[in-house]
Amino acid sequence: MKSFAKGVLFLLLFLVAVLVIRTFFFSSRQQKFPAIEKVQVSDSVIQNLAAAVRFKTVSYENDSLRDTSVFSSFHKFLYQTYPLAFSTFVKENISSQSMLLRWDGSDASLKPVIFLSHQDVVPATDEGSKWTHVPFSGDVDAQFIYGRGTIDDKCGVLGLLEAAEYLLNKNVKPKRTIYFAFGHDEETKGSGAQEIARYLQKKNIEAEFILDEGGSITSGIIKEVKPDVALIGIAEKGRATVDLSVDIEGGHSSMPPKQTAIGVLSDAISKLEAHPFDARYDGGTKALFDYIAPEMNFVSKMIFANAWLFGPVIKKILSGKNSTNAAIRTTTAVTIFKGGEKENVLPTHASAVVNFRILPGETAEDVVNHVKNVVSDERVKIKLREGYDNPSAVSDEGSEFKLISKTIKETFPEVIVAPYLVVGATDARHYQKVSKNIYRFIPLVLNDEDLKRMHGLNERINIENYKDVVRFYMRMIENSAL
C-alpha cells in the first residue's frame, strides 16, 4: 500500500513538474520594435471625416431602398477632398458604386497589396430620439466625431485616403503597386466586393496580402491582460441561414391536437438551442490565447500553456460569455418566428429562421446535417437559404502577419498584438482567390461600450484615435510598398 501511495505521489509530482516547466517555457510572442516619431496630422482630417458622415450611404436588406445618388455625391466629395490621390490613382472600371483605385508601383515584379474598406453604413434606428447627436450630423466636439460610420467604416475609407494624400504631398512613390478597394454594400450582401474580386481574378492579379477591417485594439475587454490588445483577424466565420417550417391541419381552438404547428416548431427550436455545436479550441482562437496568455498571471498562463490537460476547462470558461462562446463553436441563433393569425384558430403553418455562424473546419452542409439530426422530426421542413458563406481559410502568422504587427507596434508601442478569429463577416471573405494572405485589422481603440455603438446608438470616434488610424495607414503603406 505504501509503495502504491508513493507511486501516486511520484506521478502527481511529475505532473506538477511538467505543468510548471511548460508554463515556464510558454514565453511571450511579442515582437519588439522601436516606436517611430509621431507624424503631425492636420486637424483637417477631423472635418473631412465629419463631412463624410453626413452622406447617408446606407445599405438596406431591401436593395431597392438604396439611394444611389448619395453614393455618387459621396464619390464627388472624395474626388474634391483628395485631389492628389485621385489625379494619381487609376480608377478601375467597376460597374457598381464600389470603387477600385490603383496606385502604380515602380517595380512590376512585386505582387501588389490591397487595402479594403467600405463606404456603406447600417441604418440608424431611433434616429434623433435616443442619439445624443443626430446620427448623420457629423457633429464634432473637443474629444469625438459623432455619427453613423465614424467607427464602421468611413474611418477606414478616409483614413486610407488621408494617408495616401499625405504621402503624395511628400512625393512618395511606391515600389509595390497598391490597390484601394472600397465596397458599397458590405453591410448586406457584399456584391461590390464580389465584383472587384472577380475583376482582379480576370486580370490574374495575385496580391502579396490583403488588409481589411475586422480586428481592432481592445481596451479593457480581455480582463486578464492589462495592456490594450490589438487583434489581427487571421480568419472569419462563415454564415448560413436555415428556414424551418411546419404545415399541418388546422381547426378550431376548442378541439386542439396534442401539438399545434407552433408547438411542433417550438419543440424543434428548443432542441436546437439545447444541443449546440460542439466547442473546439483550435485555429484562430487557440492562436489568440497562445499570444495573450503569456501576458497573464501565473495560474491563467499555466492553464493555457497546458491545453492538452486543461482543454475541457478552457472550453467551459470560454463558453461562459457570448463573445468568447462564439469563438469556439458554430453558433445557433433563432432570429424570426411566425405562426398563427387568430386567437381561436389552430394555425396550419408556422415558420422560423435560424442563423448560424460557422466555425472554420465546418461547412453549411454540416449545419444542415446538424439541424436534421437534432430536430429529428419529419413534420419539420428544413431548407438552407441561398447566399451562404463557408468559413474563410486561416491565414498564417508568417511575414505578412509580422509586418502588420510591426506597424501596430510602431504606431501603438504599448499594445499586445495577437491573431484571432473574426466572428462577424467582412468583405475580405470574397477575396480568397486573390490572395492566400488575408488579414483583418483597423486600429480603432474600443472598449465594451464602444463595441455596442458600432451598429447601435451614439456611434462616435475619438479624435486622437482617428489621427492614429491615419498614422497607422501611412506607416502600413511605407512598410509594405516603399
Tally of separate domains: 2
Q: pLDDT under 50 segments (min length 5)?
A: none
State the helix count. 15
- CATH-defined fold name of the largest domain: Aminopeptidase
Global outline = globular
Distance between the termini: 73 Å
Main sheet makeup: 6 strands, mixed
What do these coordinates show?
This protein has 482 residues and is α/β, with parallel strands linked by helices. The chain has two domains: 44-216 and 398-410 and 418-481, Aminopeptidase (3-Layer(aba) Sandwich); 235-384, 2-Layer Sandwich (Alpha-Beta Plaits). Helices cover 37% and strands 18% of the residues. It has 15 helices and 18 strands. The strands form five sheets. Strands 1-2-5-3-6-16 form a six-stranded mixed beta sheet, with helices on both faces. Helix 2 (44-53) runs antiparallel to helix 5. The protein starts with a helix and ends with a helix. The model has no long low-confidence stretch (mean pLDDT 94).
Summarize the structure.
The chain is of the alpha/beta class.
